[in-house]
Fold this sequence. Notes:
Blueprint: E1 8-10, E2 16-18, E3 22-23, H1 31-42, E4 47-49, H2 57-71, E5 79-84, H3 91-105, E6 112-115, H4 123-135, E7 142-145, H5 149-156, E8 165-169, H6 177-186, E9 189-193, H7 205-214, H8 218-228, E10 232-233, H9 240-247, H10 256-263
Parallel strand pairs: 3-4, 4-5, 5-6, 6-7, 7-8, 8-9, 9-10
Antiparallel strand pairs: 1-2
Amino acid sequence: MAKNLQDTITLANGVKIPWLGLGVFKVKEGSEVVDAVRTAIKYGYRSIDTAAIYGNEEGVGQGIKEGLQEAGIAREDLFVTSKVWNADQGYDSTLEAYQTSLIKLDLDYLDLYLIHWPVKGKYKDTWRALERIYHEGRVRAIGVSNFHVHHLKDVFQGSTIKPMINQVEFHPRLIQKELRAFCKEQGIQFEAWSPLMQGKLLDNPILQGIADKYGKSIAQVIIRWDLQNDVVTIPKSIKEHRIIENSNVFDFELTKEDLEQIDALNENQRVGSDPDNFNF
């Protein structure tokens, strides 16, 4: 179990990823994203998650550069993730998309590259491209995002590497038990996007009751619940006090009863699209 913000979990290939990182979905390109990334690094975050479609890779790269300099740490101390967008999927176009992301981020390599969504008829070719990038030593780990069990099984067919991570929507209203169990059995690390359900859980009375008991915020309780479920988590924030708050989750532990109460909030409810039914 993670004891501090720099604690990591080891992926199937031996690469270590921090349990907690900063997500930058919907964070505006320019000073907003530069400041968020810089602030996160300043307060001890060592994992930054972006994607081509977020349109903020250049700002993320700038924030990384400034953050590393200010913190006096090396690029190797940071874990950086990006994702290939749906329109760029396919073998050759994925190879190109990876290169484009590197150029925008102004980095020599990524720590993790993901297929953003399982685009029908394309994601297997996309996966072959990721395997190639990985075999060539140009990325430290590869994985997928928004893949159901059947998508994962499909990727296993004819591939030489299993995804090391599956990053999906995960929060107390969508606890994805079956998918989590399958990933665990296959050695695929489970990672949560939208862990706070885009703010929709921050007035939940049950979560508030648990939060009050520990003198914590609902956001901190949810992030702690993720960690105790062995789920890597990337809450998004642009406010300095929230970035700090989201990381202050290592000084308390939820009881078995707390965890069960939170699990019981599940309604299989999504704020994002269903990976079996999306049109973008």
